[in-house]
């Protein structure tokens, strides 16, 4: 397995004092990962090595290509090598169970996915919306505003790679009490979401109607889409939402929280899930 971090030389410049200093620094590794199904290339993304099988399962689920991890019979790394002859483990080959097949055609893209790109390059956002299988149930996953406010700190406390590098996004699945179920980190925010969904899906079939997705990034369209594909009823983001993310959350019944920092947050879709002893949504 490739390294998650690496050491590089760094020159630190302080313009105020005129001091320059050199020392090694720890940075996050970014390498390509190609996912193949039955030997055929499906997608290539830039990611942080590690949890590659979780990513493959999560990506297939959130793209609507499979409905359950049980449709996968096996996964293996192809031992491709770099220019120096060292194995990179940058290809995952997925084998479906006998008689199995992808449930949809992979979305056509105009470019290779990057660590900053989830559905960008897709021919049409309508392709994404039409693929959704679950609608979030309005009576499920009631959660206290106090718990919501504490989720960014809960996520931050589990970001071990970010602690070392300052360069990793994180995604977590938590229950309505705010307890962590799964956490994953990656250079790409959408990769982190695919990894965390894939990790849970290897043991539990979607929909995940009693859990909340928490992300260290902004609430973009592709993150709402990925959450909706597996029936997650709520998404809490540290950063800002996009207009299309809000529109999709409203359409599929998902509670969308953004700017979750300190004791405050903003709700952009379906605040009715937020309860604390009594219905407080009118004050949010």
Descriptive account of the structure:
- Mean pLDDT is 86; it is low at 120-125 and 277-284.
- This protein has a six-stranded mixed beta sheet with strand order 8-7-9-10-11-12, sandwiched between helices. A four-stranded mixed beta sheet has the order 4-3-6-5, covered by helices on one side.
- It has helices spanning 52-62, 125-129, 145-157, 160-165, 189-201, 221-229, 243-252, and strands at residues 5-14, 19-28, 31-37, 40-47, 72-78, 91-96, 169-175, 180-186, 211-215, 234-237, 255-261, 264-269, 275-276, 278-279.
- It is of the alpha+beta class and 284 residues long.
- It contains seven helices and 14 strands.
- Low-confidence segments, given as residue ranges, are 120-125, 277-284
Helical region count? 7
End-to-end Cα distance: 46 Å
The whole-number mean of residue pLDDT values reads: 86
Secondary-structure-based class equals: alpha+beta
Strands, total number: 14
Portion of residues in beta strands equals: 25-35%
Strand order of the largest sheet: 8-7-9-10-11-12
Rg, Å, rounded: 20 Å
Overall shape: it is flat
Short synopsis of the structure:
The protein contains seven helices and 14 strands. It is flat.
């Amino acid at each position: 397995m490739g390294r998650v971090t690496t050491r590089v030389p760094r020159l630190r410049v302080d313009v105020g004092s005129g001091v320059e200093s050199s020392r090694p620094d720890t940075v996050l590794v970014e390498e390509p990962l190609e996912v193949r199904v039955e030997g055929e290339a499906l997608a290539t993304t830039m990611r942080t090595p590690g949890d590659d099988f979780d990513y493959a399962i999560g990506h297939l689920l959130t793209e609507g290509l499979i409905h359950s991890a049980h449709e996968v019979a096996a996964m293996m790394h192809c031992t491709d090598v770099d220019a120096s002859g060292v194995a990179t483990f940058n290809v995952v080959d997925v084998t479906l169970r006998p008689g199995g097949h992808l449930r949809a055609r992979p979305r056509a893209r105009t470019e290779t996915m990057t660590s900053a790109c989830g559905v960008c390059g897709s021919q049409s956002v309508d392709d994404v919306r039409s693929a959704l299988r679950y609608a979030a149930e309005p009576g499920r996953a009631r959660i206290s505003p106090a718990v919501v406010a504490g989720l960014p700190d809960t996520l931050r406390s589990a970001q071990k790679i970010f602690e070392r590098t300052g360069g990793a996004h994180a995604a977590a699945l938590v229950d309505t009490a705010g307890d962590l179920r799964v956490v994953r980190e990656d250079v790409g925010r959408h990769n982190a979401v695919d990894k965390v969904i894939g990790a849970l899906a290897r043991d539990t079939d979607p929909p995940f109607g009693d859990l909340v997705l928490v992300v260290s990034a902004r609430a973009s369209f592709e993150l709402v889409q990925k959450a909706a594909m597996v029936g997650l009823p709520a998404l809490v983001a540290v950063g800002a939402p996009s207009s299309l993310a809000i529109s999709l959350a409203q359409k599929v019944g998902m509670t969308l929280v953004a700017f979750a920092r300190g004791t405050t947050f903003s709700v952009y879709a379906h605040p009715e899930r937020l309860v604390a002893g009594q219905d407080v949504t009118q004050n949010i």
